[in-house]
């Protein structure tokens, strides 16, 4: 049976190859410039280039835009978009529909092309799910900028461990919503690799991911922000590099450092070490008095940190802290999921939220 190689089929393939590539490009730009997710943007770019390779000259030669009645067709919903999400949904649908058309009509003349388009359609479905998670997480950052006190109550600061990723994953399953990757000793390549893993893991669980000290690594992995010590780069430079949507925190150990953080307009501050801790060798604990001062004078959210565990967290909260950061309490516990759940239950806001 002779395959129907005719100009109408070629025009259909030509139009839908263009339509699919245009739809993907719209999505790609949002991934690149708004979400700043280079991984999703690269997926879109790869799909576009794959479609371009399928766009044979014979398809373009059959194009007849002047006599195409479809150029006059429009719909009122195409004249405006209510939100960026509406733009994404429209172009995801456009791409999926075009790929289905390509799949069906290429069966008449290019069977191999039909299978490629079918697989690409499935990739777009997966991309749609990934975009949904990424866009939700972006809106979480936007809410945080509007109301900094939406920062989670419990903050995990990691310490080096052979089971680091598994421990963080288990804590996230327990309800943890904020993780800082802290690693002073590994090579840059190792820190970058681990940060990328943790960032992806946190975002899969709708949790925020912060990088300690290293603005460059935070930028490279699309972290939600960076936490700076007193000797790290200026906060203004960190904001310039990361952009206005990212969170920048600052460690403080006394009133003068807190005042400096206020002038720098830190998004949040760390307050401590409250108790003696091996992660801050040589630094004397500031005790509960500093907590009381900060609770009365800090205009931004803050985390008590340093030697805090399940046994003394109640004491820290009673002294005036509303949020707390922990290290060993989770990193060294044999069951990170359960200890995270127990720690969260100690925060009044968490119990109130669970009861509503």
Could you please describe the fold and organization of this structure?
The longest helix has 36 residues, at 111-146. The chain is elongated, with a radius of gyration of 26 Å. Mean pLDDT is 89; it is low at 352-356. Helix 2 (38-54) packs antiparallel against helix 5 and helix 4 (84-106) runs antiparallel to helix 5. The chain is built from 15 helices and eight strands. It has 356 residues and is α/β, with parallel strands linked by helices. It has an eight-stranded parallel sheet with strand order 7-6-5-4-3-2-1-8. The chain has two domains: 7-143; 147-355, Aldolase class I (TIM Barrel, Alpha-Beta Barrel), CATH 3.20.20.70. Residues 124-356 are annotated as: Thiamine-phosphate synthase. 2-[(2R,5Z)-2-carboxy-4-methylthiazol-5(2H)-ylidene]ethyl phosphate binds at residues 277-279, 307. Residues 154-330 form the Thiamine phosphate synthase/TenI domain. It comes from Acaryochloris thomasi RCC1774.
**What sort of overall outline do the alpha carbons produce when their principal axes are compared?**
elongated
Query: According to CATH, what is the topology of the largest domain?
Result: TIM Barrel
> Between the first and last Cα atoms, what is the distance in angstroms?
67 Å
Name the CATH superfamily assignment of the largest domain.
Answer: Aldolase class I
Counted beta strands: 8
Name of the level-1 CATH class of the largest domain: Alpha Beta
Order of helices and strands: HHHHHEHEHEHEHEHEHEHEHHH
Strand content: 5-15%
Biggest beta sheet attributes: 8 strands, parallel
Q: Name the helicity range.
A: 55-70%
Q: What is the averaged pLDDT score?
A: 89
DSSP summary: helix tally? 15
Assign the structural class, choosing from mainly alpha, mainly beta, alpha/beta, alpha+beta, or little secondary structure: alpha/beta
Rg, please? 26 Å
Low-confidence stretches: 352-356
Count of individual domains: 2
Binding site for 4-amino-2-methyl-5-(diphosphooxymethyl)pyrimidine: 180-184, 212, 251, 280
Region (Thiamine-phosphate synthase): 124-356
Binding site for Mg(2+): 213, 232
Domain Thiamine phosphate synthase/TenI: 154-330
